[in-house]
């Protein structure tokens, strides 16, 4: 592992907490909660992780969530991630969760939110990792279902800071969720959305103009629309790019075929992230490593990506400047 990648402080801005469920923990929770799994061992689970597109992954991802039932399960899941994040020098994490994947199995929303939130508080105390929780709506479900989910979550408003949109993109345009995002913004929540992962550039426009998204998750198909590229560059809208995910889900054939150099060359604010690391074979550092190696990125280019992550984070000015200073110190030491 490139030691600069390891040493650089960084922010993780695109991570589904359910996507950090490693097969070992899946087995432990299945045993604890008496949930039957269609696999005999964690190795067998890993072997089943061969995906042809986003939907083929989501089918397995939602299967995995079935072992999560109680607040302690959500706590354990988030705590395991924070330990990993600490090892990789993640200093700030913005974490998605999918309440509808659990409430439809009658898991109380309070257990989900409080379990994750408690772990994030411990992560701050123990490791100094600041964090934000982002409630995602599943776009294959209806706008009304999303609205009911938001209303059910509002009693725990202090535990989350933003809303997002994820799940099956094709055929589910962001505009389906205009009302619920307006309601969320009324509550002072920030908005982000997955768009342009498999879906067309039009979905990125809708995420910006209909949902008021201030950051786009993935967004890699923006290169098909020059006017959209101009908009993203002019407004400095960050794209949270997930290279290993894009290869696993066949958005690109290989890391070398990824359009990251095109996005960077166009002057966009791109960040490197892990999406669902337990399923895609790597956390944030492995994603940095993969693109660093494939594109022969220089230390200056790697710093720029880490700097973008702090620029794109939803943190106050004091925290942002503290994080940028930490990064600057590592960069200076690297020069000596
Ligand atoms: N949910 C978890 N990972 C996702 C992804 N890459 N795209 C859309 N929804 C997701
Ligand atoms: Zn994602």
Write the layout of secondary structure elements.
Elements: H1 3-7, E1 10-16, H2 23-33, H3 42-47, H4 54-64, H5 71-87, E2 90-97, H6 100-103, H7 109-127, E3 130-138, H8 143-153, E4 162-166, H9 178-186, E5 190-195, H10 201-209, E6 215-218, H11 226-234, E7 239-241, H12 243-248, H13 260-265, E8 270-272, H14 277-280, H15 284-294, H16 299-311, H17 317-335
Parallel strand pairs: 1-2, 2-3, 3-4, 4-5, 5-6, 6-7, 7-8
This protein binds adenine and zinc ion (ZN).
Residues 14, 16, 166, 194, 217, 275 line the site of zinc ion (ZN).
Question: Can you describe this structure?
Answer:
The chain is α/β, with parallel strands linked by helices and 336 residues long. It has one domain (2-335): TIM Barrel (Alpha-Beta Barrel), CATH 3.20.20. 51% of the residues lie in helices and 13% in strands. It has 17 helices and 8 strands. The chain has an 8-stranded parallel β-sheet with strand order 1-2-3-4-5-6-7-8. Helix 11 (226-234) links the parallel strand 6 and strand 7. Helix 8 packs parallel to helix 9. The longest helix is centred in the middle third of the chain and has 19 residues, at 109-127. The radius of gyration is 19 Å and the shape is globular. The two termini are 20 Å apart. The model has no long low-confidence stretch (mean pLDDT 97). It binds adenine and zinc ion.
């Amino acid at each position: 592992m490139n030691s600069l990648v390891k040493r650089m402080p960084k922010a993780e801005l695109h991570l589904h907490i359910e996507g950090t469920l490693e097969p070992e923990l899946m087995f432990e929770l299945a045993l604890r909660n008496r949930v039957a799994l269609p696999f005999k061992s964690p190795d067998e689970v890993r072997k089943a992780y061969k995906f042809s597109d986003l939907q083929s992954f989501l089918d397995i991802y939602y299967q995995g969530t079935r072992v999560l039932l109680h607040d302690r399960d959500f706590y354990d899941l988030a705590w395991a991630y924070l330990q990993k994040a600490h090892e990789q020098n993640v200093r700030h994490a913005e974490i998605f969760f999918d309440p509808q994947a659990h409430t439809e199995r009658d898991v109380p929303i309070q257990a989900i939110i409080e379990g994750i939130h408690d772990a994030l508080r411990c992560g701050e105390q123990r490791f100094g990792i600041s964090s934000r929780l982002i409630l995602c709506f599943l776009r294959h479900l209806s706008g009304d279902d999303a609205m009911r989910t938001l209303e059910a979550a509002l009693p725990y408003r202090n535990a989350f800071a933003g809303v997002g949109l994820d799940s099956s993109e094709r055929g589910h345009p962001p505009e389906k969720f205009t009302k619920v995002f307006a309601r969320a913004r009324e509550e002072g929540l920030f908005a982000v959305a997955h768009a342009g992962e498999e879906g067309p550039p039009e979905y990125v426009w809708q995420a910006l103009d209909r949902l008021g998204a201030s950051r786009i998750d993935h967004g890699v198909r923006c290169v098909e629309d020059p006017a959209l590229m101009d908009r993203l560059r002019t407004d400095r809208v960050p794209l949270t790019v997930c290279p290993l995910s894009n290869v696993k889900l066949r958005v690109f054939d290989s890391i070398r075929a990824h359009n990251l150099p095109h996005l960077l060359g166009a002057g966009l604010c791109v960040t490197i992230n892990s999406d669902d690391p337990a399923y895609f074979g790597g956390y944030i550092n492995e994603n940095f490593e993969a693109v660093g190696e494939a594109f022969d990125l220089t230390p200056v280019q790697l710093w720029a990506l880490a700097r973008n992550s702090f620029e794109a984070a939803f943190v106050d000015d004091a925290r942002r400047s503290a994080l940028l200073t930490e990064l600057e110190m590592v960069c200076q030491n690297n020069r000596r």
